[in-house]
Amino acid sequence: MEDIRENLRNVRNRIEKAAQRAGRSPDEITLVGISKVQPLEKVQAAVDAGLVHLGENRVQEAAGKIPQIKGNVHWRLVGHLQRNKAKKAVEVFDMIESIDSERLAQEVSRRCVDAAKTMEILLEVNVGGEEAKTGAEPSKLIDLARFCAGLEGISVEGIMVIPPFDPDPEKSRPYFQRSRRLFEELRDAQIEGIDIHRLSMGMSADFEVAIEEGATIVRVGTAIFGQREYH
Fold first, then answer.
1. How far apart are CA 140 and CA 153, in angstroms?
2. pLDDT of the residue at 83
3. How confident is the model over 7-21, as pLDDT tens digits?
4. Helix crossing, 2-21 with 40-48: angle to 10°?
5. C-alpha angle 180/55/172, rounded to 5°?
6. pTM
7. Closest CA to 48 of 99, 104, 4
8. CB within 8 Å of 103: residues ≥ 6 apart
9. Main-chain phi, psi angles of 32, to 5 degrees
């Protein structure tokens, strides 16, 4: 698993260089390894090499994987959450990055209160307006944040976006710029009870551009673990 260690080293180096280009400190950026459908030995190798944050797309897969990974890991859900999976998601995750509606926020809040737990959440925004993707409409972001601010058991910390995919990372830049503006508008709204300081955007193909445009969280899978093998 030396390749995982080397991949992780390379990704961290790329994060550092992108941050420097933007006049930022690499310490401002949290690297989340996306471990969905990756074999346990690869995930464990990444944790052993120093990866602290891991992201999963599906609650059921994560629930089976999390107990088998040894180490001090912060687990977060980055995929769409169905309301009927909220109870289990609250049990196994430390953060949910994909809250996109009042109904979902309400259900997560209810489950958190039942579990006597406070869940860090990000509000997912459909920044590209794609019909096939989940996420709140940008125009409804502040209203959603205000609604969430009144709920117990959840702590709104920022936004998460997934721009339309393009192999050319520069094509993602306008979406990242728009996301940064949405993030700043939400922060500047100074909604009582929430502290907006996290902007999750950028994946293996475009995380360096995302960092240049203000990302504080990047979600990297393939560049760390290699291509996924779906069975």
1. 22
2. 97
3. 999 999 999 999 999
4. 60
5. 35
6. 0.96
7. 4
8. 83
9. -110, 120
Return the CATH number of 2-225, one of 3.40.50.720, 3.20.20.10, 2.30.39.10, 2.60.40.10: 3.20.20.10
Distance from the Cα of residue 185 to its chain's centroid: 19
CA distances from 131 to 64, 116, 126, 128 (A): 31, 36, 9, 9
Residue count of the chain? 231
What pLDDT score does 229 carry?
66
Query: Are the C-beta atoms of residues 175 and 214 closer than 8 Å to each other?
Result: no
Tokens of 124: 């997912």
Region of 71 please: left (phi>0), alpha (psi -120 to 50) or beta.
left
CA–CA gap between residue 99 and residue 14 (Å, rounded) = 29
- Identify the residue whose tokens are 């959603």: 144
Spell out, as residue ranges, where the chain has pLDDT lower than 70: 229-231
- What is the CB-side half-sphere exposure of residue 105 using CA atoms within 13 A? 26
pLDDT at 2: 79
Measured torsion, CA atoms of residues 142, 145, 149, 153, in degrees rounded to the nearest 10:
180
How far apart are the C-alpha atoms of 58 and 74, rounded to whole Å?
16
Phi, psi of 149 (to 5 degrees): -60, -25
CA atoms within 13 A on the CB side of 165: 6
Query: In Å, what is the CA distance from 153 to each residue of 65, 115, 150, 192?
Result: 25, 9, 10, 15
What is each CA distance from 12 to 26, 165, 187, 188, in whole angstroms?
9, 23, 28, 30
